[in-house]
Amino acid sequence: MGATLTYENSFVRFIRWVYAGVDRTIFMGMKFTFPGRFVSPLGFLGMLTFVLFIILGITGALLMLWYEPILDRAWHSVENINDTIPYGFHIRNIHYHASNAMVMMALLHMYYQYFSGRYKIRNEILWVTGVILGVLTILEAFTGYDIIFSERAELAISIAASLTNSIPVLGPQMREAFFGAGFHDFILRFYAFHVFLLPIAMLGLMLVHFPRFLVFDVPMVMAISGAVMLTGGVFPVGLGLPFEPEVPPGITVPEWYLTGLYAFLRTMYDKFTTGVAWPGLFIFALLIVPFIDRYKKFSWKDRPIVTAIGITSLAQIIVTTYWGFYIDPDRNKALLERLVIDPIFFYTVMILLVPLSFGFTYMMIKLAKNAEANAKLQPKKASKGSINITQKWLYVIFVTLLAFQVYLNISAYYAVLQGMNNWSLFIIGIIMLVFAAMFHVYRYGRTRAKAPPPKPVSPTPSRPAAAPTPKPAPATTAGEAQKPMAAPPTVTARVSSEQKGQLAQQQQQQQQHAASGGEAGGSSNTAQTSSDHSHLTSAAASKEGQDKKGL
């Protein structure tokens, strides 16, 4: 009996010790799946949102080292981070664009779950916590760009304070709790909300919201991170102007995820109705969706009313977002006149948009269902095969991407040395995207290598040519059986006139029997006639031979 000894180095033993120590924690209760091939990112948008949350946490912690939450020093500390601190420009741009990407990813995740009906498979708690997480994500982004205390931040602060104060009964107390007695209190309180209170609440909800089985796709995570950095290089965020109470502010708009609400407020209608009641009603409608959707199926085609409501809400969001960005370009008008939106025209458009978008969507869903039903009746077309890349070309693609990766790293290094912050951040984003492509090529090649070889196709044996089968004789019908048989070919001989008379008499008798006697009689007469005919023919032939001898 032999024993096999395996040696483990210190690092492997340390990893095993750590794994055994955390095996009973909440984190190990989650099962992470690392796909071996490309998987559509729509199925794990929640995980990508969490990755952006981690990026925000890292970059935000770095920004905290130099930010000063003091009224007269907040804007200047951000300016110092952006212009003086090494890599401060990169960190701030990544933080800003990651916050916008997180809001966008959270909205996409919510609407994908809505249209796919994922909340119907006992996921009501996950849906409710997800909606609350979406609201907290917007609040986290809102408090983040407010603590810069620029002119844009002052506009957002003033609007938020007036909306909070418009809430009946509890409004003044809530404004005092959130905003304090003045701008000095506001900066410190919003800073506490942004870096501590809201992130803690979001982490707590994530523990409830995340399912046990999660997909962690490395190439897609690298691609999302690269896209954030690339966007920061192409569209660097500015500082704006610092807020000065004695200087009148210019025209500005809030971030894109708040411009829809800003459009309602610019109608100068009641603040509580437009700024608190309408958003609250929208959030409440999202919360109760799993409890009022009674469709048994999950596809958006099989839930036409729910799908039409979702498309209508998207149309409302798009229209109001555009309207919030729009400013009258006529500079001859007064500032207030350029900002105010005609309430009659605005609400008329919004009311008409509901039946138009709902009706059009419902009609298109019905047409899609009919087209799908008709397609099932048609013969299925042969599906296209997947793209197969040989091992040689996989090596060529991987080496090319690796060489491009080296070139990009050198370019980013020299761009940083020359102070080209935008260009260096753009190149870093390209580096992340190229790395994602390299990882995907490596994963594809590894999957191909592990795949079993295709089964050999055995040649089909050639079949010998089959001999032609004789055709069966046609069946004789009753009508054909009653017809008299034709006389057989006569032997060339001289028949006397007496013998001719006997033959004619026999044929006449045969026709009479066929007309009166039926099928059996006809058959016997036919046989008798054939024998008599043969006897007469042989007799005529013998007589002819005797005549030749006599001659």
> Tell me about the biggest sheet?
2 strands, parallel
Query: Quick check: average pLDDT?
Result: 80
What is the approximate shape? extended
**β-strand number:** 2
Helix content: 55-70%
Order of helical and strand elements: HEHHHHHHHEHHHHHHHHHHH
**Which strand order spans the largest sheet, edge to edge or round the barrel?**
1-2
What would you call the structural class?
mainly alpha
Give descriptors for this structure:
two-stranded parallel sheet, 19 helices, disordered C terminus, extended, 551 residues, mainly alpha
What does this structure look like?
The protein is mostly helical. It contains 19 helices and two strands. Strands 1-2 form a two-stranded parallel ribbon. Helix 2 packs across helix 9, helix 4 runs antiparallel to helix 5 and helix 10 crosses helix 11. The chain is extended. The C terminus is likely disordered.
In short:
The protein is an all-alpha fold. Helices cover 67% and strands 1% of the residues. The longest helix is centred in the last third of the chain and has 54 residues, at 497-550.
Mind sketching the topology for me?
Elements: H1 10-21, E1 31-33, H2 45-64, H3 74-83, H4 88-116, H5 124-146, H6 151-165, H7 171-179, H8 183-209, E2 213-215, H9 218-234, H10 259-265, H11 271-287, H12 289-292, H13 304-325, H14 335-339, H15 343-377, H16 391-417, H17 421-450, H18 478-482, H19 497-550
Parallel strand pairs: 1-2
Helix pairs in contact: 2-4, 2-9, 3-4, 4-5, 4-9, 5-8, 6-7, 9-17, 10-11, 10-13, 13-15, 16-17
